[in-house]
Amino acid sequence: MTDVEATPGSQAALRRANQQRVVEALRSGGTLTQAEIARSTGLSPASVSNIVRNLRATGTVSVRETSSNGRRARAIALVRPPGAVVAVDFGTHRLAAALGDSHGGLLARETIAYDVAADPERGVRRAVWLVETVLAAARVDHATVAAVAASVPGPVDLATGEIGAITCMPRWAGFRPAAALAERLGVPVVAENDANLSAMAESDAGVGRGAEHLIYVQLGEGVGAGIVLGGRLFRGAGGTAGEIGHIGLDERGQVCRCGNRGCLETLVGSPYLLDMLPQQGAGAAPTTVAELVRAAEEGDPGCRRVVAEAGTALGRGLAILANAFNPELVVVGGDLAAAGEALLAPVRRTMELGTLGSALADLRIVSGDLGDQAALRGALRLAAASAEQITR
Amino acid sequence: MSTPVLELSGISKRFGAVQALDQVDLRVAPGEVVALLGDNGAGKSTLVKVIAGVNPADGGDITWEGRPVSITRPNDAQKLGIATIYQDLALCDNLDIVANLFLGAEHTAFGTLDEVEMERRAQELLDSLSVSIPSLRVPVASLSGGQRQIIAIARSLLGDPKIVLLDEPTAALGVAQTAQVLDLIERLRDKGLGVILISHNMADVRAVADRAVVLRLGRNAGDFRVEDTSYEEIVAAITGAADNPVARRSGRVSAATTEEA
Q1: CB distance B176 to B149 below 8 Å
Q2: Chain B residues with CB inside 8 Å of A132's CB?
């Protein structure tokens, strides 16, 4: 694209605006014929032809002779920068992939159930399949993908890209998801912790818009937090900041996989919560957190108790964070966050008992806006940011 | 690599003037997923029919676990342990899942159908494949495309096959359903079965297959380990891009120029 400064309203400015319109049409439509571009932009076929010639000269689009309804036509496709980005979200039992534009906005998304925790190699292989499937459905060529970001439920070492040893996916310990994905996709990949990405997404486009200091808590198999301070993500020295699941709360509690007793995770992690439920009630006990939350909403006393106690434990953990960081907003996300006030009310009550009054005065505790898409949205933004760095 | 369960060598098949298969080789080891790829008319379906015994080969050898066998009828293939699932699945829409699974092989007790035993075995089978279907007593018509495919595959497993042939199992399925079928293929491999997968979808092939065997115009056009092979190489073998007059000529030209240089 030409980068000539043009006075507003001039011929040159008009030409640039029209060119931008063609690029936008191609960005949303994938490969189009010249006639289709003219139809979708409202420009005359002659000016589309001129603009395409200019774009082709600068290498922004590729032109291929084809036929449409039996007549000769020229298929135009974007080649370069206005590049697409891809996000992959590894959950323990779920895989999601999304295609985004160069600003990290969501264009297409697919989620499948998959036993990701069982085997990292297979998880990556299936993730590549999901990415290819999403790209194929959106008619976006592999080669136009500028960058990929992956969200993983565990701490990612900043220097090596390795997953930490204590996570809810033990078989992934020491695995390098970014390197494995990059090898198969042929595109640069960055990996980041899911809570960190969710924190970024909620603070950019979710409930945390405008908040300077925000903590996002991810409730799943384990507990993680993404900490945004002064508008920037706080990663810590090695990238493991926010592993709040292993705050010790009860020295006589259950032994945690980290080797300590009574960690926050043993009080709010989903396997622990499901284990607490009585097995001999009428009908089958809930087997997922989503079912647990639904049963609590319908008034099942055992499930309500479990949710409330999880809220109390979470409140004790968050009180420590609030004292240390004095955030203005705590966003609770993950499956259990769907319980809403049934979870958040006990959180607030407990925090009042354990937090400095001044730290609590400006603190709001809410559930996230983006739901289970938060990590994926954050990953799209991260991919867009890393694509910008690559092209610079 | 362990001895192949099924090995075809030099298989030829002619329909009148058309040489559909010409000296085709194929082998499948236990616990291996082999994708059979090729353009329309490359001979994939003919080869499947040869293996399934529907259309016996004119020439060539078939070895099963190291010993030569002949497959002239579908029964022969079934007895050896080859299960074929065709695209149309051949399920009875009006019958429930259990009835479909045991169609033609119903269990009886005291002269009547032993529904309890059949349902127990059906549940056991689906559990062993980690397939969760809410009720086994719903008519198959009410299932999704992916679930129907899974039921069809599960039915073929009742005969304890060693090789499962899948003809385009993911065509016309949505993303989540395709993922379910791919999961099932992975589980078949984990159980030590050999799988022959016919597919036009390269993403699916790259997601589950160990090897990709390419047919072109009735001949072998390549046998690739999927892990080490790029998408482009496989597509080139399917389309014959590496083997046409233009490519050969440019190969000669570049060879000539390197000699001069």
Answers
A1: no
A2: 202-203, 206
Of B179, B202, B203, the CB nearest to A114: B179
CATH fold label, A84-197+374-391: Nucleotidyltransferase; domain 5 (3.30.420)
A110 interface with B at CB cutoff 8 Å: yes
Q: B158 - beta bridge partners?
A: none
Neighbours of B193 (CB within 10 A): 23
Per-position DSSP letters for A300-314, written without gaps between them: -HHHHHHHHHHHHHH
Structure tokens at B123: 């549940």
Q: What is the pTM of this model?
A: 0.79
Same fold, A11-78 and A209-368: no
A161 sits in the region (left: phi over 0; alpha: psi -120 to 50; else beta) called: left
Query: Which contacts of A286-289 are long-range, i.e. CB under 8 A and separated by 24 or more positions?
Result: A288/A335, A289/A335, A289/A336
Determine which of A111, A114, A129 to mutate to test the interface with B (most B C-beta atoms within 10 Å). Answer: A129
Please provide the distance, in angstroms rounded to a whole number, between the alpha carbons at the two ends of chain B.
43
Torsion sign (Cα): A329, A335, A337, A343: negative
CATH class of A11-78: mainly alpha
User: CA neighbours within 13 Å on the CB side: how many for A264?
Assistant: 25
What is the token pair recorded at A117?
């925790």
Domains belonging to chain B, first-starting first, are 6-260 (3.40.50.300)
- Max Cα-Cα span within chain A: 78
**Burial status of residue A51 (CB atoms within 10 A of its CB: 0-12, 13-18, 19 or more):** buried
CATH classification code of A209-368? 3.30.420.40
CA atoms of A180 and A349, how far apart (whole Å)? 45
Nearest-CA neighbor of A152 among A142, A143, A162, A139? A162
Strands of the B194-198 sheet, one edge to the other:
B82-85, B163-167, B194-198, B33-38, B211-216, B219-225
| Nearest-angstrom CA–CA distance, B238 and B220 | 10
Q: Do A129 and B186 touch (CB under 8 A)?
A: no
Q: What is the pLDDT along chain B (261 residues), one digit of tens a residue?
A: 578 899 999 999 999 998 999 999 999 999 999 999 998 888 888 999 999 999 899 988 999 998 999 999 888 998 899 998 887 778 888 888 888 888 877 777 787 888 888 888 888 888 877 777 778 888 888 888 888 888 888 888 888 899 999 988 888 788 888 898 898 899 899 989 999 999 888 889 999 999 999 999 989 988 999 888 888 888 888 888 766 666 666 656 555 554 444
User: How many Å lie between the alpha carbon of B111 and the closest alpha carbon of chain A?
Assistant: 35
* A–B interface: beta-carbon pairs under 8 A: 35
Q: Would you kindly state where each structural domain of chain A is located, as residue ranges?
A: 11-78, 84-197+374-391, 209-368
Distance CA A153, CA A271 (A): 15
ipTM: 0.81
A136 part of contact set with chain B, CB < 8 Å: yes
Residue A298 phi/psi, 5-degree rounding, is -80, 0
